[in-house]
Amino acid sequence: MDLIKIAEQAFATKNEFPDFIPGDTVTVAYRIKEGNKERIQQYRGVVIKINGEGDKKRFTVRKISDGIGVERIFPMDSPFIDNIVVNKHGRVRRAKLYYLRKLTGKKARIKERRVVTKKEA
């Protein structure tokens, strides 16, 4: 019985990421291989959806780059994700924020919600 648990722990190299929901602004540090070199690219944007369950969970991050909206889907279990930092917690009333695709400028802003951390409580 103990050998099974040890084997599961050895293969479970699951990354521990902070909890975030759609509407939050996150920075994803993503490892990119270019030839024989490897670098980390910071991708900062708003989480517009989270879908999937368990190991197959993935999230979509949207950012504006040179006035053009760019969306990227990241699998949660990807070995190329170095870390995820939650920059702002947004206050939204739905799970899929597709309406942000039509909005630009100040209209595309998301109000910030206050989050009580364990230190404050």
From TrEMBL:
GO terms for cellular component: cytosolic large ribosomal subunit. GO terms for molecular function: structural constituent of ribosome. The keyword Ribosomal protein applies. Keywords: Ribonucleoprotein, Ribosomal protein. SUPFAM superfamilies: Translation proteins SH3-like domain. One of its GO terms (biological process) is translation. Gene3D superfamilies: 2.30.30.790. It holds the Pfam family Ribosomal_L19. The keyword Ribonucleoprotein applies. PROSITE patterns: RIBOSOMAL_L19 (PS01015). This protein is located at the 30S-50S ribosomal subunit interface and may play a role in the structure and function of the aminoacyl-tRNA binding site. Belongs to the bacterial ribosomal protein bL19 family. This is Large ribosomal subunit protein bL19. It comes from Sodaliphilus pleomorphus.
